[in-house]
Amino acid sequence: MALLGFSSSDYVSAQNKKASVTISESDNIYKFNSKYDKAKTKQVQQYMTESLKGTDFKFTNTQLDAQLALTGGINFYIRSYDGELVMKFDKRKNKTGDFTKFKQMCEGLKDIIQKN
Fold it and tell me: What Rg value do the Cα atoms of the chain yield, rounded?
């Protein structure tokens, strides 16, 4: 089993601004871990709602620590508090198309979180 870990080249400078994003992927699991300025929480939540709009789930104004099974079948663990977001996606429990959508959402979140 190969474990891939990566972060953008902006990781160090973003870390200095109290923002960090770590994405790791193995054969079965895709993980997204981040800490960021609490002022970005609403933007992060709105982006997640828009990215997964086919599920009819609203991430705005919520704090979660749960395993979600959303409309359409997408299933993942999330811990979401102001300034912190952790998600874990099990590829074995989801469709390939859902993984692609989830991964794209995480890449967009990384950009939002690390943006000045």
Answer: 14
